[in-house]
Design goal:
The chain is built from 16 helices and twelve strands. With 506 residues, it is of the alpha/beta class. α9 links the parallel β4 and β5. Bound molecules: pyridoxal-5'-phosphate.
Length: 506
């Protein structure tokens, strides 16, 4: 990237000035009309403060300030964002428009059910869509995120074993290719976690699984596809071994965009799973929210489902088929042995509206096209980049590909972090790095189904260029990014000692 002359640097510095630093005494952003009401008494003087600084700027300056601030953020609406495991895909704006309709935003969770029948119908239909997509008959939309769905699932597994008097079932097996939330959730639910190794192909090691599947087995949590971006080819045996040993099989289905319309966890014999609506089914997310992680169960766990669960009554009795003339009534129900609530109300309703809009606008064929395109895009990247980076598991991947910079590091001192930072100079968000933990110098790339071939080709060209730069001019990567608002931050310090308040310079 070229060097800036002093004038360009001045412009760059001015763009980064804080609002308070732009303040000039006496400037105004508004003209207030003369006071036409009687002045009232001020609060007591000990409640008044005169040390508060307000920025004194014009309206134009404040508009520029916030517009410039918004441009310092990288977002999926700006550019390619191949963040593995996070599915930063383009979300159609029409879904936001639907979620913003007054009929949805101006209702209250404490309103009588009779006054929110439309919202309840939407939730019931979404439950039905998700049940059809996953093959799991019971769905609770209550969990607020993927990890919350996992927690609900593992609390149900615990309630199931305790109900049967199986108090010795305390062990949960988790492959080393699982998402990090899986062991955290199992531990929070009171289980002891035992890590299972992956075999040479990246699948669950069946011998290790058999050895650990005893009377103390509460269950297994498996991420499918795994964080290696692979579909476990042993999955049918894995499910059988765990079920034969009396354990519950949990499927982390956060990355359903790899499986939609092709594989249903219910058909594979899973007892419980969750789906991240904010990844697979459209929901702008990032920075911690907002999310939605419905939990889905098979027959064994149905009575334990979190409350509330939306059910439908059709005039003429519970088995009466709706025919367009019979009245349908929707309401909240608590399953017989429910583990209780996951949150105060009924889940993240705006995310549910978006997911409903997305699924119903795509239909069955559109849903299957998602997994087609997500898997095709990832395999295209893998085939084009496997000679420039290491590919730890050289087999067909699912929706994401895990590359490695291990050889670049050994031979040229260039790490996965350097590669990721250099991508910023080319306008691309870094992929997930150093995860999964079992891959050295990992670069986990998820192109998603929404990117065009032109974007993927640009990314391939950039990655090849970076691999060449690493070999020929590694210092270029060590100092990257060169042209971004920030360079390399001390992330630990930024998180532990955030400086969020403007202070007047002495
Ligand atoms: C495979 C997998 N499981 C679980 C989660 C956790 O989801 P959340 O961040 O919504 O809690 C994620 C998040 O990216 C994930 O990729």
């Amino acid at each position: 990237m070229g060097k800036r002359n002093s004038l360009q640097q001045k412009y760059e510095d001015s763009r980064r000035r804080l609002l308070m630093d732009r303040s000039v005494p006496g400037r105004m952003g508004v003209s207030l009309p003369p006071n036409d009401v009687p002045e009232g008494p001020l609060p007591p003087s000990d409640m008044l403060r005169d040390e508060i600084d307000f920025p004194e700027v014009t309206e134009g300056e404040i508009v520029r300030y916030f517009s410039q601030l918004s441009q310092l953020n990288f977002s999926i609406d700006h550019n390619f964002y191949p963040l593995g495991s996070c599915t930063m895909k383009y979300n159609p704006k029409v879904n936001d428009e639907v979620a913003a309709m007054r009929g949805f935003t101006e209702i209250h969770p404490l309103q009588p059910e009779s006054t929110v029948q439309g919202a309840l119908k939407l939730m019931w239909e979404l439950q039905e869509y998700l049940a059809a997509i996953t093959g799991m008959p019971g769905v609770s939309l209550a969990p607020m995120a993927g990890a919350d769905g996992e927690l609900a699932g593992m609390l149900m597994a615990r309630a199931y074993h305790l109900d049967r008097g199986d108090t010795q079932r305390t062990k949960v097996l988790i492959p080393d290719s699982a998402h990090g939330t899986n062991p955290a959730t199992a531990t929070m639910s009171g289980f002891e976690v035992v890590t299972l190794p992956s075999d040479a192909r990246g699948d669950t090691d069946l011998d290790a699984l058999r050895e650990s599947a005893g009377d103390d087995l509460a269950g297994l949590m498996i991420t499918l596809p795994s964080t290696l971006g692979l579909f476990d080819s042993n999955i049918e045996q894995v499910v059988k071994i765990v079920r034969d040993a009396g354990g519950i099989v949990y499927g982390d289905g956060a990355n359903l965009n790899a499986l939609l319309g092709r594989v249903r966890m219910g058909d594979l014999g899973f007892d419980v799973m969750h789906s991240n609506l904010h990844k697979t089914f459209t929901q702008p997310h990032g920075g911690g929210g907002p999310g939605s992680g419905p939990v889905l169960v098979g027959p064994r766990l149905l009575p334990y489902l979190p409350t509330p669960w939306v059910t439908r009554q059709v005039d003429g009795g519970p088995n009466s088929a709706p025919d367009g003339k019979k009245k349908e009534t929707f309401g909240f129900t608590t399953p017989e042995k429910s583990i209780g609530r996951m949150a105060a109300f009924h889940g993240n309703f705006g995310a549910l509206v978006r997911a409903h809009a997305y699924i119903s606008s795509l239909g069955k064929d559109g849903i299957a096209a998602i997994s087609n395109d997500a898997v095709l895009n990832a395999n295209y990247l893998q085939s084009q980049l496997k000679n420039d980076f290491d590919l730890p598991y050289d087999r067909v991947c699912m929706h994401e590909v895990v590359l490695s910079a291990a050889t670049l590091k050994r031979q040229h001192g260039v790490s996965a972090l350097d590669v990721a930072k250099r991508l910023i100079d080319y306008g691309i968000h870094p992929p997930t790095m150093y995860f999964p933990l079992i891959v050295e110098e990992a670069l986990m790339v998820e192109p998603t189904e929404t990117e065009s071939k032109e974007t993927l080709d640009y990314f391939i060209e950039v990655m090849k260029t970076i691999a060449r730069e690493a070999r020929e001019e590694p210092s270029l990567l060590h100092d990257a990014p060169h042209d971004s608002p920030n360079t390399r931050l001390d992330e630990a310090r930024a998180a532990r000692q955030p400086d969020l308040r403007w202070r007047r310079r002495a």
